[in-house]
Amino acid sequence: MTELHPSQLSQHLQMYARAKWSSWGSLAISLGLLSLGVSLSPGVKQCKTWLLGASVATLEVGRRQRHTAKLLQESLGDIDRVSRLNFQSWMNKQTQPTAQLAVTVNAINPNWQPENLITDPIEYVNRVQKHVALVGGTGDGKSTQAQYFSTRIGGQVVVYDVDSAKGDWAWVPPDNLIGDGGLPEVNKAMGEALDHLEKMRVYRKTVSKDVPQEFARFYIAEEFPVLADCDNAREWIRQHAKVGRKRKQFIMVLAQNDTASNFALEGDADILDTCFVRIRLGKKAQDYARTALKSPQLEQWLKTGGKKRFMVDDCPCELDLSTWGMGATQEPPSTNDSTNDTPTTSQQPLNEYEQAILTWGQSHAGELLKARTLQQSTRLFADVSAEDIRIIFRAMADRGLGEVDGMSDRLGWKWPTVV
Asked: Which of 27, 72, 194, 323 has the least CB density, counted as fewest CB within 10 Å?
């Protein structure tokens, strides 16, 4: 078959079909003649002889045709495949070279909006009375989400993070940032949290079912797959997941994947489903929209929205936190000089990037901060381009927060020293 030109396929297939059917036809005719000769009366002996001879001759013709069909089949190989090739060849002849196959693709509507859009994830979480499993990659805004949730939900914020860099949790009281001592320190703190959870049970039973806000806690567990090696981790997440909200003990566990093993819940995956709202950020949200929800439009909608669009369980959410921040602006130290040259800070709330820069500047007054320094020293700026950082520098200077020095890629920012 490989030696045949496509133009010969049709001819050879026709020859094969004729030989095949001729062989079967000859066999049928031969049997018919033989049957007719047998049925004749003995008086017509000469007719019987002629019919028998014709039957044998027809049978020989059929045998030859069958042999021809067999040879053609061997030369053609896979007849079904050849038939398809023959059909393609015929179509190529019947179709003009300029003919085009038009495929209509439904373009994504840039104005498309999801029907089940939510704009207040806090309201959703409080309504279902669950905790939060925050899933996202580096730079997707997990710390901003954690900061926003802790402000809205309330309670004393406690962070478990064994790999935090300076400035990562600048808004958290230093004593409540657990992890400098590694996993042993976190394990001890989790044990203390379990003790506190038990005390709240006793309080609700013996004093009042309404736990005072002073006993409320908001726990943030950064990179829980790492913290899962703590002996108390499994019990900590299980107990808080089940009864924490009743006792005003809220937990937010952060990870880059939302499997049960990442949250130390092997064998208890139902706890993750029934006690946690999954918030997926960045590419994790896009992948979920494409693979789990089978919605290319939702995936595209998430991509075009950047960090302000994410998934809350199966609901798309749009919430812009780019200009939001917890860092209260700090008033500069006062002096007796009525013409104090200390820079005046803006009253507009700072976002997490501005707060991190301001915190650094006030502890390194007079030192010039470069974009490259921020990228190398803190994970918060690891995925932020140098040009975007310099834009933040200029914006802060325009608001009276420090000053810029230099131009173009040499531009830096500093917090002036108090004279």
From this structure: 323
